[in-house]
């Protein structure tokens, strides 16, 4: 078997344009870890009968089990409406309110229980517990403000650009109470990035905060609001009101002035709404709850539109069965609410189940690598959720830290990137102290909730694999021609989901044609079909399935670079670099990194006659990317090259420069228009990397395959 697989890999390497789908990937099968009996005894899903409830012949009615976790004002008449394929609609006829489901309905039994516990970054500041009753008060008052002062009502869009503070879920839930569609932009994104999203969503209100703590500094955040308003204006959208929460109410922590008549302090406005109660607006199940922007293969970000009923049902169900959340757990997801993970598994999932959700303001290693474990110990966190990048980083800077603290996890989640078996073992043995189950969860902004993951009490864990598919999710791996790769064969292809599921996004805001072309056109054979069987969802990831049915996700097959779990589109990065007037051409490529998974390197060529020095150009490109996207997108290196390797038709061969940056084989370059430039670039880049001590370790076969396939579409 191993020989056969390697033989296929060798064959594939001979073809320069081979895609990931045709490359067989060999990896060592890892042993299983079984869940501890103590965990099984208390798990929400411990009876294997649940697998039958979600068997394919029970689809789509099986998802009633998730919807029944919610309060419906009106019950639905059609569980899955396929009439407008592939714009699936779930629970049509049903009506509900997300804010009611996450707040009001818990008051009767749990009004004095903490809904949120907020941990500010400065360690000498006490944490803040917000009970369900207090959350109810705050959400209502904010909803009154949005309705009465801003004039917002159901269907309007509002952009939020907020850090990790409880005011963020309060604002989201206040929007949801009114049926207003929130679009939270990750706080670390630049003002311009926020502005593009304001314009795309057509929001005329921006809600932000003056400042927040990050790695020990009180960072000025209001400054980004002014940049955002300006960027939106350039795209034709005028922001009427900027609402500014204050990190310290009553005290302005930004140096950026308030604009008269446009900018308002939320704490001041709220005084007029003290004690206000706003009836939750009963929304149709398919009404949009929020937009979450993500990167794709073209420069324009995609506003993934999630619907109220299907989304909320899906995150409630998956939080219950996969996160194993019980009402009396203390659950901490260390992701940022500005990403889909935070929306689904800090706010909507845990609160819909009435549990206590912890929010931490700052960086995990501030002031030192013991911080997360001190928080866990102090608050009695028993479910912990984070990303492989955070695990790798905490392992690197404090491998022995967890043992010093007395916390007790029953469950740990990992999300966002593939996790290396070695890192997984540290997570299991050192962080989880060999007592906690690990649930690896593969999913996407588009999918609303988990797709590939195991039921913690029923499926043994296997390091490096996300596990089988979630309940009611039927996957297949297809090759480039749409042929199914044999199940359990360990051969790589494109992972697709054959069926609709309630958490899936309904469309891309304002770009329905892109929804169809990006996710469905590749494998749809009959565009007129109303049968969901004809519309497999193309996730854009390569994957293999082992004999035991477990999936291993290999990474993106499109031009998206996953940096520390954040998706960055190469086109977005390149168009930011091209804003520097001296730059003629730009190409972004991924470089394998042991902590962040992937980092970005940028290749640029200059216009003729440019006089600026190399360091000046590098600084300009870095600053252009930081301004247009944000610091997370800052390239590790910028290489100014005499020319880009190109095909005869003038297309930049990204796989060639990606191979150069990763010290991998550049493959066949005979078809290039300028093959001589390849050696020149290799010498320039690799000798500089040698000098900087940036020579990477040898790549694994899967990593080689990823680099080889990069940019080949
Ligand atoms: C990758 C984050 C391997 C994948 C929830 C996907 C993963 C992209 C995993 C989505 C995982 C996410 N194992 N790869 N457990 N989870 N990915 O939209 O490439 O920010 O397509 O959603 O991250 O990233 P997004």
Give your account of this protein's structure:
This protein is an alpha/beta fold and 713 residues long. The strands form eight sheets. An eight-stranded mixed beta sheet has the order 12-11-8-6-7-14-15-23, sandwiched between helices. It has a seven-stranded mixed beta sheet with strand order 5-4-17-16-18-19-20, with helices on both faces. A four-stranded antiparallel beta sheet has the order 21-22-24-25. Strand 19, helix 16 (421-431) and strand 20 form a beta-alpha-beta unit. The longest helix has 17 residues, at 132-148. The protein starts with a helix and ends with a helix. Residues 294, 339-341, 415-418, 440-445, 466, 539-541, 553, 555-556, 562, 567 line the site of 5'-O-[(S)-ethoxy(hydroxy)phosphoryl]adenosine.
Write the SSE topology:
Blueprint (H helix, E strand, L loop, with lengths): L1 H13 L22 H6 L6 H5 L10 H4 L10 E4 L7 E4 L2 E2 L1 H5 L4 H4 L3 E6 L8 E4 H17 L8 E5 L5 H12 L2 E4 L6 H11 L3 E5 L1 E4 L2 E4 L1 H13 L6 E5 L17 E3 H5 L12 E2 L3 E7 L7 E6 H14 L8 E4 L6 H13 L3 E5 L10 H9 L3 E4 L1 H10 L13 E5 L5 H11 L5 E5 L33 E4 L14 E5 L9 E2 L3 H8 L17 E9 L5 E6 L3 E4 L2 E4 H8 L5 E11 L3 E10 L7 H15 L8 E4 L13 H8 L14 H17 L8 H9 L4
Parallel strand pairs: 4-17, 6-7, 6-8, 7-14, 8-11, 11-12, 16-17, 16-18, 18-19, 19-20, 29-30
Antiparallel strand pairs: 1-2, 3-13, 4-5, 9-10, 14-15, 15-23, 21-22, 22-24, 24-25, 26-27, 28-29
Helix pairs in contact: 7-8, 9-10, 12-13, 15-16, 20-21, 20-22
This protein binds 5'-O-[(S)-ethoxy(hydroxy)phosphoryl]adenosine.
């Amino acid at each position: 078997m191993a020989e056969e697989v390697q033989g296929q890999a060798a064959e594939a390497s001979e073809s320069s344009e081979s895609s990931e789908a045709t490359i067989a990937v060999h990896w060592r099968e890892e042993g299983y870890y079984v869940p501890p009996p103590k965990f099984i005894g208390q798990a929400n899903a411990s009876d294997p009968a649940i697998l039958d409830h979600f068997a394919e012949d029970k689809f789509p009615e099986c998802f009633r089990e998730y919807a029944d976790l919610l309060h419906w004002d009106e019950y639905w008449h059609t569980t899955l409406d396929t009439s407008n394929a592939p714009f699936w609609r779930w629970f049509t006829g049903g009506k509900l309110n997300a804010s009611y489901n996450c707040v009001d309905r818990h008051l009767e039994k749990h009004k004095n229980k903490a809904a949120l516990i907020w941990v500010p970054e400065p360690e000498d500041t006490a944490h803040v517990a917000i009970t369900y009753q207090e959350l109810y008060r705050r959400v209502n008052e904010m909803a009154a403000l949005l309705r009465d002062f801003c004039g917002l009502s159901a269907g309007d869009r509002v952009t939020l650009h907020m850090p990790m503070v409880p005011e963020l879920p309060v604002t989201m839930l206040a929007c949801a109470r009114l049926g207003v569609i929130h679009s939270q932009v990750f706080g670390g994104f630049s003002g311009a990035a926020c502005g593009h999203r304001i314009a795309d969503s057509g929001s005329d209100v921006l809600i932000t905060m003056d400042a927040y703590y990050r790695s020990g500094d009180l960072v000025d955040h209001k400054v980004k609001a002014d940049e955002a308003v300006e960027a939106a204006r350039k795209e034709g959208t005028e922001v009427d009101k900027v609402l500014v929460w204050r990190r310290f109410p009553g005290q302005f922590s930004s140096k950026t002035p308030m604009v008269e008549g446009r900018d308002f302090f939320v704490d001041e406005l709220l005084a007029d709404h003290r004690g206000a109660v706003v009836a939750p607006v009963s929304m149709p199940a398919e009404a949009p709850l929020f937009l979450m922007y993500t990167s794709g293969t073209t420069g324009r970000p995609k506003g993934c539109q999630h619907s109220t009923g299907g989304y909320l049902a899906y995150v409630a169900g998956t939080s219950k069965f996969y996160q194993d959340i019980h009402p009396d757990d203390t659950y901490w997801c260390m992701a940022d609410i500005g990403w889909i993970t935070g929306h689904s598994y800090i706010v909507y999932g845990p609160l819909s189940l009435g549990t206590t959700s912890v929010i931490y303001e700052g960086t995990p290693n501030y002031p030192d690598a013991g911080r997360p474990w001190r928080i866990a110990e102090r608050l009695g966190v028993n479910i912990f959720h984070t990303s492989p990048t955070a695990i790798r980083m905490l392992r690197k800077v404090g491998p022995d830290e967890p043992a010093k603290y007395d916390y007790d996890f029953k469950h740990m989640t990992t999300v966002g990137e593939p996790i290396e078996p070695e890192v997984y073992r540290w997570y299991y043995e050192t962080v989880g102290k060999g007592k906690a189950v690990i649930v690896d969860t593969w999913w996407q902004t588009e999918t609303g909730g988990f797709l590939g993951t195991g039921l913690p009490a029923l499926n043994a864990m296997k390091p490096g694999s996300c596990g089988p598919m979630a309940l009611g999710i039927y996957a297949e791996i297809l090759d480039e021609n749409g042929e199914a790769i044999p199940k359990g064969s360990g051969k790589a292809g494109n992972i697709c989901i054959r069926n609709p599921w309630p958490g899936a996004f309904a469309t891309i805001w304002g770009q329905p044609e892109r929804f169809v072309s990006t996710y469905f056109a590749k494998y749809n054979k009959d565009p007129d079909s109303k049968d969901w069987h004809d519309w497999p969802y193309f996730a854009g990831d390569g994957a293999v399935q082992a004999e035991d049915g477990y999936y291993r996700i290999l990474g993106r097959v499109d031009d998206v670079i996953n940096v520390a779990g954040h998706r960055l589109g190469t086109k977005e990065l390149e168009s930011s670099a091209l804003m520097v007037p001296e730059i003629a051409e730009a190409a972004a490529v991924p470089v394998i990194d042991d902590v962040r998974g992937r980092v970005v390197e940028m290749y640029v060529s200059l216009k003729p006659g440019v006089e600026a020095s190399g360091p000046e150009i590098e600084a300009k490109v870095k600053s252009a990317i930081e301004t247009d996207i944000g610091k997370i997108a800052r390239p590790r290196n910028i290489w100014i090259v005499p020319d880009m390797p190109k095909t005869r038709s003038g297309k930049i061969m990204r796989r060639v420069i990606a191979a150069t940056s990763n010290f991998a084989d550049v493959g066949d370059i005979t078809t290039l228009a300028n093959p001589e430039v390849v050696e020149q670039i290799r010498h320039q880049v690799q000798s500089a990397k040698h000098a900087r001590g940036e020579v990477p370790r040898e790549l694994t076969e899967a990593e080689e395959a990823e680099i080889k396939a990069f940019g080949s579409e």
